[in-house]
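FW: tagging you since you asked about this chain on Friday. Here's the raw sequence from the shared folder, copied in full. Didn't touch anything.
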Amino acid sequence: MKTPTTEDMLRSLGLMRIEEPAVPTWVAPAAMFGAGVAAGAAAALLVAPKSGKELRKDLSAKASDLGETVVNALPDMSAVNPFSRTAPYLQDVQEIEAK
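HL: got it, structure written out here
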């Protein structure tokens, strides 16, 4: 007679193990909020009475700001990145490019 597993015991009680979601539950709402903010900002810029040159300059500045905000808001992903072995090499490349 084999020893029942945890899964066997749960099943006999009509229960089951709840799997953790692969992505945290806050990611989808945060992404939708971010997309809404970006769409609202773009719409506001497009309806503003500016010349094309000024509008392109403003869009470029806002896109740059948004990129910096996203990069600063993201956690350090090197702990979960399977390619984190390349991080030292990327740092070397960045230092060379900065010279």
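FW: The chain has a mean pLDDT of 77.
HL: agreed, and The chain is about 65% helix and 0% strand.
FW: great, closing this out.
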